[in-house]
Amino acid sequence: MEGLVSYGINPIRVTPISKQRSCFLVQSEPNLTKSVRGIQIGIVNKNKKKQFSPLIMAAAVGNTQVGHFENTLPSKEILELWKNGDAVCFDVDSTVCLDEGIDELAEFCGAGKAVAEWTARAMGGSVPFEEALSARLSLFNPSLSQVQNFLEQRPPRLSPGIHELIQKLKANGKHVYLISGGFRQMINPVASILGIPKENIFANQLLFGSSGQFLGFDENEHTSRSGGKATAVQQIKKNHGYKALTMIGDGATDFEARRPGGADLFVCYAGVVLRQAVAAKADWLVFNFQDLINSLG
Questions:
Q1: From 93, 254, 264, 291, active-site residue
Q2: Is the predicted pLDDT of residue 26 greater than 90, yes or no?
């Protein structure tokens, strides 16, 4: 859902995604040695256990220079926060899952082009999240049956390594949350596969009438408005008294959670989309969840 608001971020998709799907398919690791939109990507220490595999990136995309990111190798302090924290919150679209849920649903309902065009216009200036969400949904007004058919025919695709990472976190006694600007109807099946309880999901809720007609979305959800992810993280930390909490995501709304009373650590996952401004600000930039798994011991 990150594309709904303009943050001056130039997103670069780094994972080639096939349209072929299978039910809750965990994609194999993409071949990142290919050139993607002019970016040459090489993998360092790919097969060495207990070592990190930062991607060295050097290219020019349009007028934007993509250089080496210094934060692919975490400091000792960052590693300690990650290893010893109480809880981890994950963004869903382009992080836990390879796809952007609302875009996929719009395409399934025959409004993909219209939604994409609206998004392009919205990127020209700052648009409140709730306004952008409402506008895009109004372009195709998905019915309950359409959502159900979508989930059956085009289920979410999990990012490589996410299942193993979450199981490792849980085995180490950490609490795992999903925080998304997407919809519970589409996120609940993902949470079920990953063994994450529904009470640990913060996301939007599509509303339907008695005949299954689209009525809108629940505006009381934290993530239905701008700054909602940050508010959700602050509430989680306050309610449970966590000493250290990590937020993992790809976008600016995920980075916003890194504030006093919120996330103590922000890990930018750029395995699907690299948003350079976000990546540069992250405490730790990873392109492969295996780096996070290896660091847990």
A1: 93
A2: no
Torsions phi, psi of 116, nearest 5? Answer: -65, -40
99 belongs to the catalytic site: no
The answer to whether 263 touches 286, Cβ cutoff 8 Å, is no
Residue 150's DSSP bridge partners are none
Q: 68-77, 186-195, 208-217 — which is least confidently predicted?
A: 68-77
- What integer is the mean pLDDT of 155-166? 95
Residue type at 89 in one-letter notation = C
Distance of CA 13 to the CA centre of its chain: 13
- Is 291 one of the catalytic residues? no
User: Tell me, what amino acid is at 203?
Assistant: A
Handedness of CA 213, 219, 224, 230 (dihedral sign): negative
Can you tell me which residue has the tokens 């939007």?
A: 204
What is the pTM (predicted TM-score) of this model?
Answer: 0.80
Task: Choose the catalytic residue: 86, 91, 283, 291.
Answer: 91
Tens digits of per-residue pLDDT, 48-96?
444 433 333 322 233 334 457 889 999 999 999 999 999 999 999 999 9
Cα–Cα distance for residue pair 273/259, rounded to 1 Å: 23
Q: Look at the alpha carbons of 156, 130, 132, 283 in this order and tell me if their dihedral is positive or negative.
A: negative
